[in-house]
Amino acid sequence: MATKHSRAAARLMISPAVLLLLGWMIVPLAMTLYFSFQRYNLLMPGMEEWTGLANYQYFLTDPAFFDALTNTLLLVGGVLLVTIIGGVMLALLLDQPFFGQGVVRILVIAPFFVMPTVSALVWKNMFLNPVNGLFAHAAKALGLQPYDFFAQAPLASIIGIVSWQWLPFATLILLTALQSLDQEQLEAAEMDGAGPLSRFFHIMLPHLARAITVVILIQTIFLLSVFAEILVTTNGGPGTASTNLTYLIYAQSLLQFDVGGGSAGGVVAIVLANIVAIFLMRMIGKNLEA
Amino acid sequence: MGSIVLEKVHKLYGNVEVIPSIDLTINDGEFVVFVGPSGCGKSTLLRLIAGLEDTTSGAIRIDGNDVTETPPAKRGLAMVFQSYALYPHMSVRKNIAFPLKMAGMDKAEIDRRVEGAANVLNLTQYLDRRPGQLSGGQRQRVAIGRAIVREPSAFLFDEPLSNLDAALRVNMRLEISELHQSLKTTMIYVTHDQVEAMTMADKIVVLQAGNIEQVGSPLELYRNPRNRFVAGFIGSPKMNFIEGAEAAKRGVHAIGVRPEHIALSKDSGLWKGTVGLSEHLGSDTFCYVNVEGIGTLNVRTSGEVSVHHGDTVWLTPGEANIHRFDKDGMAIR
Ligand SMILES: Nc1ncnc2c1ncn2[C@@H]1O[C@H](COP(=O)(O)OP(=O)(O)O)[C@@H](O)[C@H]1O
Ligand SMILES: [Mg+2]
């Protein structure tokens, strides 16, 4: 019962948790903001001084920034595209009754449990490596020139690896949504003369809209900050070909020791994430309403 | 046209025999009701006719054509599901138009038919709502609308009224009957409620455990039930069955007499008993009378007769209305 009294008690009870979380968030945010206005280089300790907007000016006019921005958006968009389309198709397949369904479902979910550095290294060394990789062997067996994935299509390779990690998540969410679809609706559509494709586009896809929205929102949060996969494979290269915003901030702060510039990049990243969030909610947020 | 013939239709789910073997002829324009207790295979039979389930063996003919292997969409039948199965993300208009759109009909004709159906079903002002914004009865009507715009050769209804409240059920019963009067299309209607069966049907098919117990008009089934199951299932309240000495006196295994065919008197009669419960419906009163050596009999009296718990009364069955059954439960004529 939500009486006045119980509501006051509830507020009191959750306030420690809220305060803790708030502090946890506010302190690093405030420090980042503070550092972003400082000239702060780890190679010159004790020389910190106020520089106003100089850090922002350097970060935003750095040509690498625009590369990183496009790469970030391409990475998020590309992985979303692959995981949603692939996830819907896998969910449709897994929804069919077949022998060994339980085992196959567990296998499909497995990649999600592999940590990003490990899966990226496995892909780098065992699949995509131009000398020892499985794909190189396959190409040679067919008499073709092995393809050097990370040199020639670095961003696409990373999109592939990250998609592989997130496909299970999308599949799982979409599969549960698909299973909650009332079979009688499909039967009604069948009697109404809708073929398999019409049933998919007119009945299943609208039913999946909400689940797809959830997948997009959750994945976007994590995909904006992809880092480990880039660090252990391409190191952002060649050049800036696979540098995203997260990686650029890392490079600025810890490879060039420019904490001030890195912090400014962090603030820019926060702004960008919020722009993406507003944009997404505008576009697909209405799907979440009951 | 819409005559439907089932020939030795047999259905297994895995190893479970749901329908052993059914032969049935449904004539064009008939209102046929499949009635039987829950789980007796009514829905399965309807879905076999619709094509949503495959027959294990046997044949189904519609207008003389063998459709046993024909997919549901090509059978020219329309179905109204128990859960309505409306498309939740489409407006009422789009729901009703869906089968026409799938058939590739042109826009103007679709609009004309949708408006027509909405008119018949009093849905005109709801055309732009979603199913979620409608009441149960309105959803039911949308489901019917979606069926009638296709102008099918037969309608299939699977317990369409079971989700509605009692008053609405009576209304919709009338509406569906009226629809049948005006369309004159074959309708197959599944229900577990014998009142719906009695009030709506031209022909009732009584099912039990996947077998047809009897086929006939409502009054035929009421007057001449073929066996004890039909006798007990058709008619409300249930027929009273009496076994033992009283039946042996008439040379049969069991006799049955309906509550409305027993006269109750306060001073003389064939069987003497005491009144247990009585249910006062206003127009009628149903008394449960405990008769020594026979058991509890349900008796209908007019609402004006006043009887009370514990009263001693005499009961007299109308001899002409006594049903006789042999050991296997078959009626003896
Ligand atoms: N898909 C199925 N698989 C196995 N058994 C089923 C299936 N559908 C129905 N049955 C069984 O078939 C019998 C008849 O079911 P149904 O036709 O739905 O009954 P009714 O509609 O008369 O209540 C029931 O005993 C039910 O358990
Ligand atoms: Mg049923």
TrEMBL record, chain A:
Return the similarity comment.
Belongs to the binding-protein-dependent transport system permease family.
On whether Membrane is a keyword of this UniProt record, the answer is: yes
Q: Which residue ranges traverse the bilayer? A: 12-37, 73-94, 106-123, 155-178, 208-228, 264-284
The protein depicted here goes by the name Sorbitol/mannitol transport system permease protein
| Membrane topology label | Multi-pass membrane protein
Swiss-Prot/TrEMBL GO biological process terms: transmembrane transport
Cite the ABC transmembrane type-1 domain residue spans from the record.
Answer: 69-280
Q: What is its main location?
A: membrane
Q: Which GO terms describe its cellular component?
A: plasma membrane
Cellular localization per UniProt: Cell membrane
Which InterPro entries does this UniProt record tie to the protein?
MetI-like (IPR000515), MetI-like_sf (IPR035906)
What keywords appear on the UniProt entry? Answer: Cell membrane, Membrane, Transmembrane, Transmembrane helix, Transport
User: Looking at the keywords, is Protein transport present?
Assistant: no
TrEMBL record, chain B:
Q: Which residue intervals define the domain ABC transporter in the entry?
A: 4-234
E.C. code: 3.6.3.-
Keywords, in A-Z order: ATP-binding, Cell inner membrane, Cell membrane, Hydrolase, Membrane, Nucleotide-binding, Sugar transport, Transport
Primary localization: membrane
Q: CDD domains from the xrefs?
A: ABC_MalK_N (cd03301)
What domain of life? Answer: Bacteria
Quote the SMART domains the UniProt record gives: AAA
Query: Quick one: a GO cellular component term?
Result: maltose transport complex
Q: How does it sit in the membrane?
A: Peripheral membrane protein
Q: Where in the cell is it found?
A: Cell inner membrane
Q: Which GO terms describe its molecular function?
A: ABC-type maltose transporter activity; ATP binding; ATP hydrolysis activity
Name of the top EC class for this enzyme: hydrolase
Similarity annotation: Belongs to the ABC transporter superfamily.
Q: What's the protein here called?
A: Multiple sugar transport system ATP-binding protein
State the organism named in the record: Allorhizobium borbori
The major lineage groups are: Bacteria, Pseudomonadati, Pseudomonadota, Alphaproteobacteria, Hyphomicrobiales
